[in-house]
Amino acid sequence: MEYTQIPGTDLKVSRIALGTWAIGGWMWGGTDDAQSIRTIQSAVDRGITLIDTAPVYGFGRSEEIVGKALAEGGRRKRVYIATHRDRHGNELVPVRSERRITDLDVFGRLLKR
Predict the structure, then answer these.
(1) Residue 3 designated active-site
(2) Domain 3-112 in CATH 3.30.70.100
(3) Out of 57, 62, 83, 107, which one is annotated catalytic?
(4) Domain residues of the chain, as ranges?
(5) Tens digit of each residue's pLDDT (9 = 90 or more) over 57-100
(6) Contact residues for 87 (Cβ-Cβ < 8 A; gap 6+)
């Protein structure tokens, strides 16, 4: 796995992120929670350190599944969670962890690399 530092921060993350929109199930006909958890765990075990989620992904269901997947095996300490802000810069969910990326400008710069 390749890693990169997000410009303007001291955060070093995997160049590949795991997006979890479809894991939320809404608009996709549902998902299998066990398979979603295995997918997230496998990604982290293979070096993915950046997971993208948002409260709008399945009306919070994606975040619940990500939380369950990361709770096992100390995986939560190994990743950063990128969430989203609204168009005015307000966080969409309460802050729950110091290991998260909420600044879309910083996250956007990462995606342009």
Answers:
(1) no
(2) no
(3) 57
(4) 3-112
(5) 777 788 889 999 999 888 988 998 887 765 555 655 434 444 45
(6) none
